[in-house]
Amino acid sequence: MPNVTKERRRAQRYPLVLTAEFIVLGTRTKLNGRASDIGRFGCYIDTLNPSLAGTRLELRLSHGGEAFQTNARVVFVSPGLGMGVAFLDTPANQQELLDRWLAAGVVS
């Protein structure tokens, strides 16, 4: 079983590292980062250009030729370091993919 930490509110977080691409809704600005500390309902994205808290994003996390896609909202920011995001309205097929990655303890 992978090393797991407890998310503050709803689910465990896993120390996975995935490629992250996100588009800021409203401006359509496309940015990249690295997702880590991933759970069923959110993750942390390492990026030099984090968005402001409350910003909505289109998020894509990639691993091994597969991609998890969902909308997200920035819930906290570490300026110059990254941001925590909560997943929003994740489609069932995307949630199944993420759950499979989490169960397998995927590490990029």
What does this structure look like?
The protein has 108 residues and is mostly beta strands. It has a single domain (5-104), classed as Thrombin, subunit H (Beta Barrel), CATH 2.40.10.220. The protein contains 1 helix and 7 strands, in the order βββββββα. A hairpin with a 2-residue loop joins β3 (29-39) and β4. It is globular. The two termini are 17 Å apart. The relative contact order is 0.23. Mean pLDDT is 87; it is low at 1-7.
What tags apply to this protein structure?
6-stranded antiparallel β-barrel; Thrombin, subunit H; 7 strands; mainly beta
Gist?
The chain has 108 residues and is mostly beta strands. It has one domain: Thrombin, subunit H, CATH 2.40.10. It is built from one helix and seven strands.
